[in-house]
Design goal:
The protein has eleven helices and 13 strands. It has 339 residues and is of the alpha/beta class. It has a domain of 226 residues: NAD(P)-binding Rossmann-like Domain (Rossmann fold, 3-Layer(aba) Sandwich). The strands form four sheets. Strands 3-2-1-4-5-6-11 form a seven-stranded parallel sheet, with helices on both faces. A two-stranded parallel ribbon has the order 7-10. It has a two-stranded parallel sheet with strand order 8-13. Helix 3 runs parallel beside helix 5. It is globular and about 55 Å long. The relative contact order is 0.14. The structure holds nicotinamide-adenine-dinucleotide and uridine-diphosphate-N-acetylglucosamine (UD1). Nicotinamide-adenine-dinucleotide binds next to helix 1, helix 5, strand 5 and strand 7.
């Protein structure tokens, strides 16, 4: 009988890909999602990819009663916690929503886990906790800071997890700091589906390639980088998903564990590198203008990946060609479906 993993936010971008690889690794997945930023049809797509429909409960991680009922009704062995809000700009407009979803959501979930005796927890943190990098590549011991409410919520939950780990024996916790997740499952059946105008580079570029948006605005070409545009560590979402399985396994093998690791590739690409790679992958032109810098942006950011390799035996393997090809397949299939 395979183990059941509770995946919060499992119909979202990263959670859906993690669900696929968990199922393929032999786990049973139970998704809890309130569908505030994803669609129920993702379950069909996952079933089409893996041949197995994940169990699904529509609910909110802030709903303690629902969580208690869930833990009572199922033998859950670990929780992967993706549910949360993630738009940096929106977080400055609606900070209370962000603290409520991301911090209160996490405390409620952890309290329910504690009561149920489930103590294995994998948390979606972010490279945003490094603030403006003092040196590159970013190692996990780099000082942390935040410049916006979203980033603060990640810092708070990271600290809360450390406190919880120290408070009593038996917790097995992984804090995974994602760099810039992009791409999609190679089937084109699941991917990133932002509502409204995308905030992030890759979905925006993809929508320019399909003709849904006229031009990309490149936010600044006067940074201290090789071509002046911002440099980031883009990681294929399938690599990222596999990093979660590695972290889960590591936690499950330990009596207790407190892991904090970067999930990135260790390589930085500029905005214009990504535009070129996307043009090649899609065969479509991506028109762009140079625009002013976006407030709060940093020049460059990429991960030191050694700790992830040493502790998890995991490395990213997919390059930007695959990231762009898979993102394009997903975007083109979506555009075709929308007519
Ligand atoms: P996403 O919005 O696609 O997925 C999040 C899912 O959580 C959605 O399906 C949404 O409906 C659900 N959700 C939100 N609040 C909920 C709540 N209170 N209760 C139940 N479900 C809720 O986002 P994603 O890109 O898949 O991100 C997943 C996690 O990874 C988030 O915690 C995010 O902060 C973190 N992260 C994402 C990125 C990125 O670039 N995508 C980078 C670093 C960290
Ligand atoms: C952003 C968030 C970060 C979050 C991450 C993943 C900000 C300031 N940071 O990171 O906290 O963890 O998303 O969700 O929002 N770009 C353009 N034109 C665009 C969009 C982006 O030129 O239309 C550039 C940006 O200036 C940057 C690069 O593309 O240089 C990547 O941007 P983006 O995809 O938004 O990610 P981050 O800014 O790294």
């Amino acid at each position: 009988m395979s183990e059941t993993i509770l995946v919060t936010g499992g119909t979202g971008f990263i959670g859906s890909h993690a669900t696929v690889v968990l199922q393929q690794a032999g786990y049973r997945v139970l998704i809890l999602d309130n569908l505030c930023n994803s669609a129920i049809s993702v379950l069909d797509a996952i079933a089409e990819i893996t041949g197995q429909r994940p169990d699904f409960v529509q609910g909110d991680v802030r709903d303690r009663q629902a969580l208690d009922a869930l833990f009572r009704s199922r033998a859950i062995s670990a929780v992967l916690h993706f549910a949360g809000l993630k738009a940096v700009g929106e977080s400055t407009q609606k900070p209370l929503d962000y603290y409520d979803n991301n911090v209160h959501g996490s405390t409620t979930l952890l309290a329910a886990m504690r009561q149920a005796g489930v103590r294995t927890f994998v948390f979606s943190s972010s490279a945003t906790v490094y603030g403006d990098p003092q040196k590159l590549p970013l190692t996990e011991d780099h000082p942390r800071s935040a410049t916006n409410p979203y980033g603060h919520t990640k810092l708070v939950v990271e600290d809360m997890l450390e406190n919880l780990y120290r408070s009593e024996p038996g917790w097995r916790i992984a804090r995974l700091r994602y760099f810039n997740p992009v791409g999609a499952h190679p089937s084109g059946l699941i991917g990133e589906a932002p509502q409204g105008v995308p905030n992030n580079l890759m979905p925006y570029v993809a929508q320019v390639a399909t003709g849904r948006r006229p031009r990309l605005q490149v936010y600044g070409n006067d940074y201290d980088t090789p071509d002046g545009t911002g440099v980031r560590d883009y990681i294929h979402v399938m690599d990222l998903a596999l990093g979660h399985v590695a972290a889960l396994r590591r936690c499950q093998q330990a009596g207790q564990e407190m892991l904090t690791v970067n999930l990135g590739t260790g390589v930085g690409y500029s905005v214009l590198d990504m535009v070129k790679a996307f043009e090649q992958a899609s065969g479509k032109a991506v028109a762009y203008d140079i625009a002013p810098r976006r407030p709060g942006d940093i020049a460059a950011c990429w991960a030191d990946t050694e700790l992830a390799f040493q502790t998890l035996g995991w490395r990213a393997t997919k390059d930007i060609r695959e990231m762009c090809e898979d993102a394009w397949r997903w975007e083109a299939m979506q555009a075709a479906r929308a007519g």
